[in-house]
Amino acid sequence: MDSYTDGLTLDEQIGQVLAVGFPGSILSQEVIDLVQNNHVGNIILFSRNIHDARQTLALTRSLQMLAQKSGQRFPLLIMADQENGIVHRLGPDATTYPGNMALGATYSEDITRGVARATGEELHALGINVNLAPVADVNNNPANPVIGVRSFGEDPMQVARFVDAAVRGSHDAGIICTLKHFPGHGDTAIDSHLALPTIPYDMQRLETLELVPFRSGIAAGADCVVTAHIAFPAITGQDALPATISPAIVRELLRRQIGFDGVIISDCLEMDAVAETIGIERAAVMALQAGIDLVLVSHRADRQRAAFAAIRAAAQSGELARETITAAAERVMQLKVRYLSWETIPSPITREMPFQISSESHQRLSEEAYALSTTLIRNEDALLPLRLKPTERLVVISARRSTMTKVEDNFYSDELLAAILRQYWPRVDLVPVSDLAVDDGSAEISQAASDADVIVMATVNAHLDRQQARLMRALVQTGKRVIGIAVRNPYDLLAFPQLHTYVATYEYTRPALVAAARVIFGGQEATGRLSVSIPGLYPRGYCWKG
What we know:
By secondary structure, the chain is of the alpha/beta class. 39% of the residues lie in helices and 11% in strands. It contains 20 helices and 14 strands. The chain has helices at 10-16, 29-37, 53-69, 100-106, 109-125, 156-172, 203-208, 211-219, 233-236, 247-257, 272-275, 280-290, 301-317, 322-339, 360-373, 414-422, 435-440, 443-450, 466-477, 510-520, and strands spanning 18-20, 42-45, 77-80, 130-131, 176-182, 224-227, 263-265, 295-297, 375-379, 394-398, 428-432, 454-459, 481-486, 501-504. The chain has a six-stranded parallel sheet with strand order 2-3-4-5-6-7. It has a six-stranded mixed sheet with strand order 9-14-13-12-10-11, sandwiched between helices. It has a two-stranded parallel sheet with strand order 1-8. α1 crosses α13, α5 (109-125) runs antiparallel to α15 (360-373) and α12 (280-290) crosses α13 (301-317). The protein starts with 9 loop residues before the first helix and ends in a 26-residue tail after the last helix.
C-alpha cells in the first residue's frame, strides 16, 4: 500500500475519523451497528462501561474482535479519560492515584512520571490503549468551575515540566497519551459542558501562558491533542467560534505554527458549547474542515449516526474535500500502526485464571504520592495534630454541594470521611445540615455545634458555592474548634478567611482522605505545597510552617 487508506471506501474512511461511546457494560446493538455498518474505528469508555477489571477486559476484547470480524484493517483505538483524582474511570480494581493538582503539590516530577507509567500499565492490562490525559491547562483563574484540580497548577513552567513527565510516563507504559484542552481551558469561569466560554487574549499572551505546557508535551512526544470548545476572538476574528472548529486554531496554530504532526481530537461535540450553538452535525463537518482528525461524539447513537451522515453528505456534495477526510483517516491509522496490532490484543481470561491490574508497587506509589501531596495551609491555633480527651466528640458536618461537573464520576458521601476518621478516634458522628438551616441560621447548626468538641467539614469548591460558604462561616462563629478540608480546589479559604485550621487534599478519594486523617491526628507530616496561589492570602509554593 502507498498509504494505509488505499482501497478504503468513503464510508470506511469516515469510520476512522469518528470516535463514539455507548451505554452499558456489554456491547450494545447500537455500537455493534456502528462498528459493523459505519466502520467506526474508535471507542471511548466511561465509568458507565466499567464495573471491574475482568468485565472491562472482556468488553475491550469483544470490541476488538467485533472490529476484526467486521473487516477493519487495524484494531480500534479504545480510549478513556483516566486523569486520576476526580476524573477516574477504571473502577474498583484499579489503583487510585492523585490527580494533577495533588501531584503538583508534591513538586515531584519523578512521582508524576511514575504515576503516569503505572496508570498506563493498568490501562494496557484492560485493553485500553489511549489515555485522554494529561490535562495541560494552566489553572490561573480561581473561578474556573471545570478545570481547577485537573490542572497541575497556575505557573506555566511548572505545568510544562509536569506535563513532560506525564507524557514520558505514559510512553514508558506503551500507552498513547493526549494533551488537552488546546489551546487552554484554564482561564475561564464557564464550563464548556454547559456553555461557550471566551478567552479574549491575543497570541502574545497565549505564548507566555496557555501554550507553554502544550509545547512542552508535544516536544516530549505526545501522540494526540484534544481541542477546547472555547472562543478565542482575538485569534479567530469571530466572537462565538469554538476553537474545535476554527482553522486558525487547529490548522494554523497547532498544526503549522507549533508543528504538531500527531492526531488532533475534538472534545465531545455533545457538550453544550457546541451542541447548543453550532449543532453536532454541522460541527462534525466544520471540525474536519478546520483540521481535526478524530471527531468525538461520546454518548448518543442517534447523534453519532447523524454526524456520520453529515460528513458523508458534505463529502458527496463537495463541501468537504475527500482529501481532507483521507488525510485525517491516514493520520489516525498511522497512530494505530505505531502502537497496535491484532497480535497484541489481550487474550481471553476465565474465572479460574488469576487476574488483577493493581500491584503492591502500585499501591506503595499511590500511598507515597498522597502523603507527599496533602497540604496543611493553615494551623493558626496549633489545633493539629489533634489531641482529644477520651470523652470528646468529633462531628463531621455534611451539607449539600452544588459544584459537581459533568466530567466527574465521584460522589461526595461524607460517611466515607467519618468512617476514616473513626479509625483514629472512636467518638465520631456524622451530622447532616439542611439547606434551610444554612439559609435561616436555625437552631440546627447551633445544635450540631453544641454536641461537638471538634467540627470537621469537607468543602467542594465552596468559594463558588454560597451555601457551603455560609455554613462554614456559621460553624466558625459558634466558637468551636473547626477543621476545614478542601477536597477540591484550595481556593475555598477565600470564602471564609476566618477559618483557622485548613487542610487541602484536592480530591475526595479514600487514599486522599486517609492521608488527611493521618495529618490531622499526627500520623504523618503534611509536606505538600500549593501549586496555585490563594489570591490575597497565600502564594504558590506555600505551606504552613507554624
